What we know:
Number of domains: 1
Largest sheet: 8 strands, mixed
Helix content: 25-40%
Low-confidence stretches: 1-23, 198-210, 215-244
Distance between the termini: 35 Å
Radius of gyration: 17 Å
Strand content: 25-35%
Number of strands: 10
Amino acid sequence: MLRxxxxxxxxxxxxxxxxxxxxxxxxxxxxxxxxxxxxxxPNGSGADLLExxxxxxxxxxxxxxxxxxxxxxxMGSEPRGLLVGRSSVSGPDARMxxxxxxxxxxxxIDRQAKxxxxxxxxxxxxxxxxxNRVKGIxxxxxxxxxxxxxxxxxxxxxxxxxxxxxxxxxxxGVEYRIKLNSQVPEEITIPEGNxxxxxxxxxxxxxxxxxxxxxxLIFVSAIAVGALVYSLLVRTTPAKQSQK
Length: 244
């Protein structure tokens, strides 16, 4: 019964990913090397809880640790409870793993300005050489909703950084896809705190394709069924991207 259910989910995921072409946007064209989920501490401490994963099988644990420490430095808040290690995403045999980091850092979500400190996030992950260069980042602020000051689009191809934002209703929160056109951290600045002009978000067809499955499956990766589906997506993502 479990296998049958898994099969149905897999077929749905593949069908979504192979659906009709959607209009071009960063959610379609940028393949992230790292995925961040960030949420407020439900205990009201003022800290933000981070989980960072890379779907690159060879992404170095020490590099991820250094990047998290740099983010804390840029935020003026030393990461607390930092744990970095490999986590199974393929079931009990643990033959397939992904690098994962968890910690708490203060102030990434700006409670007063009702915004997000995206500049610090991107700078922390910039500046590394191939093959572990970060060219794309996906960030989900869990439980947050877009405000008038929430930036939803920024940058062009000739700018150091581009981003696109949207409200993710599947795993509720504000989601960003970010493209690093420069690897010089000091060149990267994303505006925050000002009222934004309304910008068109990604098309509905585009958002129904791969991103909702990736985020949903990351959140249930501890569950065997979710882990199996996520494992499939990890193996098929590069091929799909190369076809676009």
